[in-house]
Amino acid sequence: MKERLYEILNEEKIHEIIPFLKELSNEERKTLVPSIKKMDREISKIVMTKNSYHTAGSVNQHSIIDIASFVCMDKKNFGKNYWSLFRNAEQTEQILEWGCPEWFSDFINESVEAEFTAFNYKDILGWTEKGYVQPKPELLGHHLSNYPAELDRHPETLNIHFWYLCEYPSKSLPFRKEWFPIVQKLIAEKKIERKRFLKECLLASNRNFNKNVTGWFMDAFTSLKPTEEELTELQDDLLAGLASSQSKAVNTILSHLKKIVGVPDFKNDEFSHYLPNLLSSEVKTVVVSSLVLTEKIFQRKKIDPEMLGMALSTAFVSKDDGIQSKAAKIILKYIPASENMIEALSHYSDNILTNVRPLLVKYIEETQPELVAIASEKLSLTTEENAVKVLQNFEDLMFYLPVAMDDPYSQHCDIALAGFIRFAGDVNAESVKLIEPVFLKACKTISKWEVPYLNVLLCNAIINYGLDLMEKYPVPLKNLEKIYHKTKEEEAARESYSNYQKKLGPIENVGADCPARIAFKELAIYTYEKIKSGDKIPLLFTVTHAPCWISPVTLVERLESYQNNNIIPHHLDIQLALQRCALDNTSEAIAETEKRLKGEYKELLLFFFGKNAKPEGKFEHPSWWMTAGITRSPETVFEEFSSFGYDDIPVEFFSGAYKWKTIDNKKNSYYPVDLKIVIPKYHLAKRKEPLFVEYFVAEQKELIEIPALMLCFPNTPANALAKVIKHCLFFSGIAEVYERSLVLNTANALYQIKKPLDEIGYLFLGTIFLDSDKTIRGTAAEIWLEHVSSQTMDNAWLGRVIGLHEKLEWAPVKRLTDLIQQHMLNVSKNHNIALEELISNILLQMDAPVTNLKKILEIYHEVLALNHSEAHKEIIGKLNSWKENSSLKKICSLLLKK
Q1: pLDDT tens digits along 153-180
Q2: How far apart are CA 466 and CA 480, in angstroms?
Q3: What tens digit of pLDDT does each residue of 465-498 get?
Q4: CA-to-CA distance for 171 and 411, rounded, in angstroms?
Q5: Could you check whether the bond before residue 849 is cis, i.e. omega within 30 degrees of 0?
Q6: Which of 244, 329, 337, 394 could, after both became Cys, cross-link 423 (CB 3.0–4.6 A)?
Q7: How many whole angstroms separate alpha carbon 431 and alpha carbon 265?
Q8: What gap in Å lies between CA 448 and CA 512, rounded to an integer?
């Protein structure tokens, strides 16, 4: 059988495959499955040519395998191939007539999850008539959504299946432009019931459809122009739709409820139950529409105002001046100052803005309670709370290595490597069995197409370590050879790709396609040699405190081990250790250095820890001293280092002082306002001891790893931040997932480092304050809050960055004002004072009024009132100019009175 199948495949006898399969019994077909899979792998191999690529198999060969797979395999083995076999409809029908698999109906029903299928609604109806498929409503609704044609051919299409479409639509429904006119025509011809369809449109608001599908049903509802009578009759469904998570649905329903607010049967009480959630919405249009509808109820209905009034108090969750003023005016006009109302508003008293409080004097205290000043806490980089785990034995190491493989760019990898050095040799015939699951995970991880580079190096070390153990313990580790052989086969299949980087074999042969990876590979080779040789002197670079810090005292202790054993550290190992050393408190480390170390080690660390203002002693290892100088004082050029030969490296990479500018492209470019940062080009120079930083700033192939690599330079993150700014933040409208992910990971890394910011740190933070991604902006606010609490935030500097961006409207001002209102305002007295300085410096950069300047000024007015301050002298001149603008006149006048 196998030979016959190979013959049909190799000679491309596609006309013979069906007769051949017909002759086989079910058992015979099952036995062919492994061969079919093997043949499929062979013909699916990629063949690279000079200008393109293709699979090894021809079109006919792929068709032969598709048919054989369908006939011989079960559903699990066949997978989710909804495309290839069904492209030839005539051939598919021919197979189904004599050999419809028992799993076919379930397979087709599951096609609603497929991105594409080569069959449609019409095919499904045909298969249903012949008994091949027992369709579920989800299947019919999904495929009918994608087939707006021949609706009158089958009576069940409009009588039954159309309503399945409403309940289980395809994600593609909104993009089928034919459906709108078709639905309107069918309703006009009374082929589908108008009232039922209107109801289905409203039910769509709470059916967890995506926003496009929900929006389609809302637009369909509006386009049918429901009458007042219809809206009244559908009132329960309209109100239920107010609980939707989709703002389009809520806004559409609110607009229709306004049309029937005056009818006698309008359900005021039911609406009041939904009002608190509506007024708590983060979508301003939802809140404003809810307030308008509430006011209309008061205007047109004789009702007990208390229930609606108490619900209305929720509006003061928002710190928007317009929303609070509107809510206050409604309360003042329609709702008496009852005990219940005063109680309801008391819960939001701290949030009510200073210029709104006088309106509500009958309901709340006119003056706002004074906020408490938070005592400043100096952030310590190395505490007991962030000390990393220390492994105790070989068993600990085996249980911890999988954790490190899951998160290679974290302290977990350092913990594992430190344990590897200490305990790799502490293995016996019993404990050696623990390596098998670790080895299997390493092989599975390294076999993936996309593997983080540090994971490649870690997994490679684990695999080579396992292979070494297998030679010593062949019986308990007999499975390792089988696991490794399979992994090696998979890699061999990929090596035909020109861009494939080798992962298996000696660690020296692992691919490294950019300088940063070359540096880590060199460290990996050094580390594995220590493991292999049983050298237990600790690595210098492994962190002692999360996320990336080394205690200065620990660095002294580790260097003492090298000194006592008369061993010179690897140049990259010691450089990385210096770069990661926490320098916020070095007094104890200085004392330990003077007591324990001598010679170059002692002089190096006394300079590094700040005891010696200038470098002293013999400079036997220039790369150590240069790294110490850059890390300790990046802005200082030490004359003593002038002969080291590193003067060909652009000074920006040492100082972090990059030139940048926000540029107006005269509104005629795709990017109307650009953020330009100049990063010099640099190619890795050949020298005896390159600086670690050289590998990082030289040409990079991959950007995605930058946030993790930034943790190698926690004292001087400017080089990493500059790269992310250049590639991901030059334009405020970037919405690609890749860039968003990179910026968010970088922001999180900056938050974790907890160091005072430098010039590029402020540029990065000020820029992400205006980012289009809400999560990124939230992270920026968290950085600001923490740095203000520890008094390490220069708000004047940060304000200048944001002001220079917004002076040219680099990003919508609303992003900034929403962030301030939701995360930064009224956190504490200290934060309000810091916020005043921040906003003042933003405004000082402004010349002509920008879009939404009014909102910044309103927040500034609120902050000044909270701080009992007056507007900055230089800003007063700007306010006198801006008040000529009609939209700014009122707020400028208020600020000038302060």
Answers
A1: 999 999 999 999 999 999 999 999 999 9
A2: 8
A3: 999 999 999 999 999 999 999 998 888 877 766 6
A4: 42
A5: no
A6: 394
A7: 78
A8: 17
Domain ranges of the chain: 1-101, 267-369, 391-518, 537-647, 661-896
Residues 816-845: what's their mean pLDDT? 95
Q: What angle do CA 697, 699, 705 make, to 5 degrees?
A: 70
Average pLDDT rounded to a whole number, residues 36-64: 83
User: Is the distance from CB of 773 to CB of 732 less than 8 angstroms?
Assistant: no
Question: Please, are residues 124 and 140 in contact by the beta-carbon 8 Å criterion?
Answer: yes
Inter-residue long-range contacts of 155-162, CB under 8 Å, 24+ positions, other chains counted: 158/186, 158/191, 158/192, 162/192
Q: Which residues of 675-712 are buried (b: 16+ CB within 10 A; e: fewer)?
A: bebebeebeeeeeebbbbbbbbbbebeebebbbbbbbb
Handedness of CA 453, 454, 460, 466 (dihedral sign): negative
* Of 837, 835, 814, 817, nearest in space to 826 by CA: 835
Q: Average pLDDT, whole number, for the chain?
A: 92
User: Distance between CA 67 and CA 72 in Å, rounded?
Assistant: 9
What burial class does residue 232 get, using C-beta atoms within 10 Å of its C-beta: 0-12 exposed, 13-18 middle, 19+ buried? middle
pLDDT of the residue at 367: 64
For every residue of 17-78, DSSP letters joined together read HHHHHHTS-HHHHHHHHHHHHHHHHHHHSEEE-SS-EEESS-HHHHHHHHHHHHHHS-HHHH
Residue 659 has pLDDT above 80, yes or no: yes
Residue 798, classed as helix, strand or coil, is helix
Distance from C-alpha of 697 to C-alpha of 692, rounded to nearest angstrom: 9
Instruction: State the pLDDT at residue 855.
Output: 94
Q: Is the dihedral of CA 258, 261, 262, 265 positive or negative?
A: positive
Confidence of residue 376 (pLDDT cuts 50, 70, 90): low
Residue 287 pLDDT greater than 90, yes or no:
yes
Nearest one of 478, 467, 535 to 505, comparing CA atoms: 467
Can you tell me the distance from the alpha carbon of 666 to that of 239, in angstroms, rounded to the nearest whole number?
Answer: 48
How many CB atoms lie under 10 A from the CB of residue 228?
12
Report the residue count for the chain: 898
Name all contacts of 382-390 with Cβ < 8 Å and 24+ positions apart. 382/544, 382/545, 382/549, 382/551, 382/582, 382/584, 382/585, 383/545, 386/545, 386/546, 386/547, 386/549, 387/544, 387/545, 387/546, 388/414, 388/415, 388/543, 388/544, 388/545, 388/546, 389/415, 390/415, 390/418
**What would the two tokens of residue 466 be?**
């396992």
pLDDT digits (tens, 9 = 90+) for 757-784: 999 999 999 999 999 999 999 999 999 9
The identity of residue 838, as a single letter, is L
Backbone angles phi, psi at 629, to 5 degrees: -65, -45
Angle at 358 between CA 355 and CA 362, to 5 degrees: 150
Residues 6+ apart with CB under 8 A from 775: 744
pLDDT tens, residue by residue, 509-559: 999 888 999 999 999 999 999 999 999 999 999 999 999 999 999 999 999
Cβ-Cβ contacts under 8 Å for 648 (sequence gap 6 or more): 685
Q: What is the pTM of this model?
A: 0.81
Query: Using CA atoms, how far apart are residues 707 and 703, in angstroms rounded to an integer?
Result: 9
Crossing angle (nearest 10°) for helices 453-472 and 411-423:
20
Contact assessment for residue 277 and residue 290, using Cβ atoms and an 8 Å cutoff: no
N-terminal to C-terminal alpha carbon distance within the chain = 94
User: Cβ(547)–Cβ(753) under 8 Å?
Assistant: yes
575-579, 706-710, 893-897, range with greatest mean pLDDT: 575-579
Q: What angle is formed at CA 428 by the lines to CA 424 and CA 429, rounded to 5 degrees?
A: 135
The stretch 861-871 carries a mean pLDDT of 92
- pLDDT over threshold 70, residue 898: no
On whether the CB atoms of residues 121 and 147 are closer than 8 A, the answer is yes
Q: pLDDT tens for residues 583-606?
A: 999 999 999 999 999 999 999 999
615 token code pair: 């470098």
Give backbone dihedrals phi and psi of 384, rounded to 5 degrees, phi first. -65, -35
**Can you give the pLDDT at residue 250?**
97
